[in-house]
Recover the amino acids of this structure.
């Protein structure tokens, strides 16, 4: 039986999963990310974990790796800002240890999109965009069943579309009014604090308590006026951005994941409303749904990427 | 010698070109579009023209057709608003007359993009976006050397991104602030008239004369303050929109065609400036250049599309 290993490298943990060809997960585990020695430790961590869990890779056909940064088509990664490592190619590094395995590499958001297409809410679709709402706003793009990399691996970085011309604060990218500043967990908290400072409306939210996006959504759902206004304002920019994405590549479905997506249908309803308003030309609107694989989307997608690449190679032979 | 026919269906004329495999144009001609009999005349026009010019198709390997409306992946066209025809598939219609030829169908803007990639300013690139600035703003998207169709053939319709929140007039799509309202020839004239009515600045432009985008650009280039302001304002939205496109699919190059693009480097400079401002995350910016095939991009691309499809089929065999 052919098995595929999916590896999802994050700033805190590296996640691993072993999958059958049909997408059944046989085992999953994670280890804390060790970014010492300019990233060298990371690779020995990954190879050791794979060897230990797969009898030195005996039953493994392919290994896929999701990386938190732009990945070029040949697997080369110029920089992972969060990990502080530069200029490496996991395909080459892992290829030296596992010379007879297919190694595939992709950006974590794109890989998560592939995971959702394989075993999550993107099943049955070939043209989809996955948006991750967490500390920032990330995105992965799949067209005709394949990851869209783009020239420098920067496809799907929709968090830095400057969609709010009224924004006065700076984004980490140096711009103003990025989607990231509005629709991320950080963005929702930031905007809610502004409204609290302005005393926009009476509210159950307390400035002195540590505010989270979850608290804001919970209050909004319970009818809190200030919280509801904050959520709607922030998500309106997400709806608008998805309309922009539609006008570029016209996907069948948008899948919303990441911590903020736990707000569920309440969130989807608002995003859909604004998406519809901004995509008037489109008679049949794209569907907007919640992701279902949660934090496992990355390992699913990484394994699937390796499987697809192996299949592609075999077909060429 | 294999030959490919490119057909570009427009509202006024149908353009035809016969090409060698290497992209040399052997003959080109055009006939006025006849949209009588619910579009039936159109197809007899096209088949007759091809038969007459190619000795009944004897030397032809494939025929490609560019259609002014959204085209689905199987060639189906739901509606061509400009032609007033609905629910047809050129692949089937032409396939009945030319059963042994490869027939390929694509949206005119996407097909023009393929033309520019083959023999125009997109040569050497595989990830590109072509923007056509004419009566409206159109767009064609190529990723990995292939046309991106999208779910309903609406990819590349960037003219209806609502990028100007300050717009008060309605767009044809029912929205407000679409790129189409700003950066098309019509949009530039419209905004210039607004400035004239406001007496924004002394100007050589005369409200009473018929204003054209060309006149506005000529005046702007000659130092006219009102014209220069109008052009910069209108094109700023194009630069912003291209940045949005970059964050979705990260193309290597943008190619600007259509009547307005005759404004040349003056236009490119402004668009590039605003594109750079709105795409801060991207260290290496996409190139922005002028199209070089002019009105022939469509026939080049249509022929190329047929050639690529034939090649794809042969490879599968």
């Amino acid at each position: 039986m052919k098995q595929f290993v999916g590896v999802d490298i994050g700033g805190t943990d590296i996640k691993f999963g072993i999958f059958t060809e049909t997408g059944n997960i046989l085992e999953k585990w994670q280890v804390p990310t060790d970014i010492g020695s300019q990233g060298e430790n990371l690779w020995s961590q990954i190879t050791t974990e794979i060897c230990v869990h797969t009898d030195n890779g005996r039953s493994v056909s392919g290994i896929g790796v999701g990386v938190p940064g732009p990945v070029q088509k040949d697997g080369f990664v110029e920089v992972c800002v969060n990990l502080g490592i530069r200029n490496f190619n996991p395909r080459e590094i892992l290829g030296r240890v596992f010379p007879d395995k297919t190694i595939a590499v992709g950006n974590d958001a794109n890989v998560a999109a592939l995971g959702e297409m394989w075993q999550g809410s993107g099943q049955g679709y070939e043209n989809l965009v996955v948006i991750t709402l967490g500390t920032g706003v990330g995105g992965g793009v799949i067209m005709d069943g394949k990851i869209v990399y783009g020239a420098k691996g920067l496809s799907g970085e929709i968090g830095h579309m400057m969609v709010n011309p009224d924004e006065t604060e700076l984004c980490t990218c140096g711009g103003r009014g990025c989607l990231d500043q509005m629709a991320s967990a950080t963005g929702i908290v930031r905007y809610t604090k502004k409204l609290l400072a302005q005393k926009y409306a009476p509210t159950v939210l307390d400035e002195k308590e540590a505010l989270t996006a979850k608290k804001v959504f919970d209050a909004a759902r319970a009818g809190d006026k200030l919280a509801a206004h904050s959520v709607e304002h922030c998500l309106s920019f997400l709806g608008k951005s998805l309309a922009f994405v539609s006008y570029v590549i016209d996907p069948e479905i948008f899948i919303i994941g990441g911590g903020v997506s736990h707000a569920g249908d309440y969130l989807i309803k608002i995003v859909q409303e604004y998406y519809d308003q901004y995509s008037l030309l489109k008679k049949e609107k794209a569907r907007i749904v919640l992701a279902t694989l949660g934090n496992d989307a990355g390992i699913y997608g990484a394994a699937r990427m390796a499987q697809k690449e192996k299949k592609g190679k075999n077909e060429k032979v």
